[in-house]
Inverse folding.
């Protein structure tokens, strides 16, 4: 089973949704046969790499609300995050453009480190208040999951994996995704948002049951007797 997850490193609900999915997988008997693939999405592609605004100001400006309202909203999200074991520090978070962080995630995927890199970047942003637009910071985080720091810096200095990020974003647009997190199960079922764990577990069970109940192949143009009779190549196909 394949679960594709569209998310952004600057999306607080994406980290919460990741934990909810992980919790569901821990209860799923066939979790070893589930592949989770992370896809790129940017909530604000126009965001500057460096800004003098804090997260409360960014939210207030984006949604046309007062600073007090923005702080209240962030406080509520922080409490929701705490419910799944995450610590968010909105007062010290550093808003930035996440494009290079997404490129790094794709680079990590080529080294079998996508899952580890995804987790490390999210923790760095929401809990440690690190600057995910800074190449030195990104390279250091990459080294912490086993990637070469200097090679990572060289990759970030160019435009490698730019196409991978854009492909993910385009496929998401083709699917009608306009908000994250967004989870697609076997390219058939979708879960939108950081839903409770039981929603994800229900989706996993539904897809698994349907896959196991798939109808066997039906032969056309020959009856059972013809399928088994005669020489190994008599019916137009060669058998072992």
């Amino acid at each position: 089973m394949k679960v594709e997850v569209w998310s952004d490193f600057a999306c607080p609900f994406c980290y919460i949704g990741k934990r909810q999915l992980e919790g569901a997988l821990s209860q799923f008997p066939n979790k070893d046969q589930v592949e989770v693939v992370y896809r790129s999405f940017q909530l604000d592609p126009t965001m500057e790499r460096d800004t003098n605004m804090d997260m409360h100001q960014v939210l207030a400006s984006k949604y046309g609300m007062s600073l007090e309202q923005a702080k209240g909203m962030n406080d509520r999200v922080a409490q929701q995050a705490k419910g799944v074991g995450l610590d968010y520090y909105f007062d010290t978070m550093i808003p930035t453009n996440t494009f290079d962080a997404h490129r790094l995630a794709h680079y990590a995927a080529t080294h079998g480190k996508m899952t580890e890199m995804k987790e490390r970047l999210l923790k760095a942003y929401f809990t440690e208040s690190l600057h995910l637009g800074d190449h030195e910071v990104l390279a250091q985080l990459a080294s912490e999951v086993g990637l070469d720091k200097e090679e990572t810096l060289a990759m970030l200095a160019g435009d490698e994996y730019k196409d991978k990020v854009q492909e993910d974003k385009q496929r998401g647009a083709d699917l009608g995704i306009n908000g994250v997190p967004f989870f697609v199960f076997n390219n058939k079922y979708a879960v939108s948002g950081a839903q409770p764990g039981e929603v994800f577990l229900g989706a996993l069970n539904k897809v698994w049951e349907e896959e196991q109940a798939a109808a066997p192949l039906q032969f056309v143009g020959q009856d059972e007797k013809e399928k088994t009779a005669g020489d190994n190549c008599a019916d137009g196909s060669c058998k072992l």
